[in-house]
Design goal:
single chain; mainly alpha; RRM_dom; RNA-bind/splicing_reg; mRNA processing; mRNA splicing
C-alpha cells in the first residue's frame, strides 16, 4: 500500500512553494501558518535546523 492511502497522491496543480529567509531560530511552523494562511491554504511548513547552532 502506498503512503498516500486510498485517495492517491495529493493534487498539486494549484500549489506553490515559498522560501522564507531570515527568520529567527525560535520560529516554529505554528508561527508561520497564520501569517501565510490569509493568502491561501497552507498544507506544510518545513523549517530546516542547523544542528551546529542547536548546541549553543
Amino acid at each position: 500500500m502506498s503512503h498516500f492511502g486510498r485517495s492517491g497522491p495529493p493534487d498539486i496543480r494549484d500549489t506553490f512553494s515559498l522560501l522564507v529567509l531570515n527568520i529567527t531560530f525560535r520560529t516554529t511552523a505554528d508561527d508561520l501558518f497564520p501569517l501565510f494562511d490569509k493568502y491561501g491554504k497552507v498544507v506544510d511548513v518545513f523549517i530546516p535546523r542547523d544542528r551546529r547552532y542547536m548546541l549553543r
